[in-house]
Amino acid sequence: MPAAVVTGLTAALAAAVGGRGPAGGALTVGAVAAGQLSIGWCNDRADMGRDRASGRRDKPLVTGEALPGVVAGAAIAALALCVVLSAACGPVAGCVHAVAVAAAWSYNLRLKRTVLSWLPYALAFGLLPAFVTLALPGGPWPPLWLMAAAGLLGTGAHFANVLPDIDHDLRTGVHGLPQRLGRRRSVCVAALLVLASSLVLLVAPDGPVTRQGWAVLAMTVLLCALALLRPVRDADARLPFLATMGIAAADVAHLVLLTASVG
C-alpha cells in the first residue's frame, strides 16, 4: 500500500482510540509517516537497476531528477527520525514499530524476491494496531484477533498490489510468492485473505455482530465474486486489483470502528 494510505490508516486508528490528545496522536502518526518515507525511498533505491532496465520514466532515479546518493541518504535520515519518534511513543511501542519497519526494509532489500515475500506484510500490518495502542497510557496490547485481521489484510494487499506488474517483475528477476503463483492464483489468494480478514472482524469481537459488520461482509463477498469470476489477462489486471483494494478499504473502516470500541 502507498505510504499515504498507511499513514492515513494510522491517523484514523489513533483518532479512534484517543487517549493521548492531539500532540500524542500526532507523534504516533509522525513516527509512521517517517517510517513510510524511509521504506519508500529505500525501495526506490533498491529497485533503481530494475527500473532503469525497464525504462520506467515515472521514476526520478531513472530520469535523473534524483541522485542515488541523495535518495539513500534521505531513506536513512527518515529511518533515524522514525526511530526517535517511535521511541518517544514509549519503549515497547517503539520496539514494536521498529520491528514493523525493519520487516518492510527486509522486503525491499531481499524478501520481495523470495517465497517469503508475504511475511513482511503480515508482520508489519499485524503490528500496526499494536503500535497505536501500546503508545496509549498504560501501554495496552490490542486483542490478538485485531492484529490477526490486520495481518491478513496486509498480506492480501501484497498479493493484490503486485497483480498489474507480475509479468514485469518476472522479467526483472522478482520471484516473490505472488509472481510464482501467477496472476490467476494470486487473485484467488488475495480475495481469500481479505475475506478472511473480514470474517475475523465480524465474528471475533465480543457481543452481537453489528450492522456495519454485515455490510462489510456483503461488500466483501460481492467484490470477491467480481475479482474471481472475471477472466484475468494483462488488460484486465487492474480490475481484480481494484476490487481487492475496495474490500481492503471496507475492512479498514471496520477495523477503525472496532479499534475505537476496544481502545
Describe the SSE topology:
Blueprint: H1 3-17, H2 21-46, H3 48-54, H4 60-63, H5 68-88, H6 91-109, H7 119-134, H8 144-161, H9 166-171, H10 177-181, H11 183-203, H12 211-229, H13 238-262
Helix pairs in contact: 1-2, 1-7, 1-13, 2-5, 2-6, 5-6, 6-7, 7-8, 8-11, 8-13, 11-12, 11-13, 12-13
What would you say this structure looks like, in words?
- The chain has 263 residues and is mostly helical.
- It has two domains: 1-140, Tetracycline Repressor, domain 2; 143-263, Four Helix Bundle (Hemerythrin (Met), subunit A).
- It has helices at residues 3-17, 21-46, 48-54, 60-63, 68-88, 91-109, 119-134, 144-161, 166-171, 177-181, 183-203, 211-229, 238-262.
- Helix 2 (21-46) packs parallel to helix 6 (91-109).
- The chain is flat, with a radius of gyration of 18 Å.
- The mean pLDDT is 87.
- It is a multi-pass membrane protein.
- InterPro entries: UbiA_prenyltransferase, UbiA_sf.
- This is UbiA family prenyltransferase.
- It is found in: Membrane.
- Keywords: Membrane, Transmembrane, Transmembrane helix.
